């Protein structure tokens, strides 16, 4: 009887450890799926990250800079771009600052905080990168083209880490 109780206690502890959220991660969860695939990048001490993409219409770079807040949310700090064409703001709204300098436009946000957002990985040959902690992750190679992903921050359990797809490596950021 004692042996059975001991085995049950060990099994319960192992199960608790496996399913307890412990690892902070940037998570890309497939949207529009009943069983979404989860891709993740483990967070380190850095609180800033960048998403750089080539705008599909005017084919110039857009750089969005974010930071992780103390309560685990996403703060959009600024957007930088070269064209005011379709889809790109040409002025500031309340709580924003718009500047134009040397052919580049910057839109800074005072306090744009998000829980998550949807990222579409277009099936066209343009860039889509996630930059974090000195690494560059090519999202067109890591995620499925033509699919949408809910991007957010999450604590993952050991089970979720084993079940998910770790976005290993990335390339060293040569631009600093």
Quick summary of this structure?
This protein has 176 residues and is an alpha+beta fold. It is built from three helices and 13 strands; from the N terminus they run αββββββββββαβαββ.
SSE layout and pairings?
Blueprint: H1 2-19, E1 23-30, E2 38-42, E3 48-54, E4 61-68, E5 74-81, E6 96-101, E7 104-114, E8 116-121, E9 128-132, E10 135-138, H2 139-142, E11 147-156, H3 158-163, E12 165-166, E13 171-172
As laid out across the biggest beta sheet, the strand order is: 6-7-5-4-3-9-10-13
What is the structural class? alpha+beta
Number of helices: 3
Give the tally of β-strands. 13
| Rg (CA only) | 20 Å
Shape: elongated
The span between the termini is 62 Å
Instruction: Note the run of SSEs as H and E.
Output: HEEEEEEEEEEHEHEE
- Relative helix content: 10-25%
Low-pLDDT windows of residues: none
The major pleated sheet works out as:
8 strands, antiparallel
* Average pLDDT figure: 87
Strand content: over 45%
Characterise this structure:
The mean pLDDT is about 85. This protein has three helices and 13 strands. The strands form two sheets. The chain has an eight-stranded antiparallel β-sheet. Strands 8-11-1-2-12 form a five-stranded mixed β-sheet. A hairpin with a 7-residue loop joins strand 1 and strand 2 (about 40). It has about 180 residues and is α+β, with helices and mostly antiparallel strands. Helices cover about 15% and strands about 45% of the residues. It has helices at about 1-20, 140, 160-165, and strands at about 25-30, 40, 50-55, 60-70, 75-80, 95-100, 105-115, 115-120, 130, 135-140, 145-155, 165, 170. The termini are far apart.
């Amino acid at each position: 009887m004692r042996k059975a109780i001991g085995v049950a206690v060990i099994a319960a502890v192992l199960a608790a450890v496996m399913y307890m959220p412990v690892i902070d991660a940037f998570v890309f969860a497939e949207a529009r799926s009943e069983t979404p695939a989860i891709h993740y990048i483990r967070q380190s001490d850095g609180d800033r990250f960048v998403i750089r993409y080539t705008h599909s219409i005017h084919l110039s770079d857009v750089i969005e800079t974010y930071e992780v807040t103390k309560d685990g949310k996403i703060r959009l700090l600024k957007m930088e771009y070269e064209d005011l064409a379709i889809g790109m703001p040409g002025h500031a709204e309340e709580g924003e600052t718009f500047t134009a300098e040397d052919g580049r436009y910057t839109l800074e946000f005072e306090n744009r905080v998000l829980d998550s957002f949807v990222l579409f990985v277009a099936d066209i040959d343009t860039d889509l990168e996630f930059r974090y902690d000195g690494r560059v992750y090519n999202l067109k190679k890591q995620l499925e083209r033509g699919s949408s992903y809910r991007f957010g921050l999450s604590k993952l359990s050991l089970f979720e880490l084993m079940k998910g797809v770790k976005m290993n490596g990335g390339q060293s950021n040569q631009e600093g």
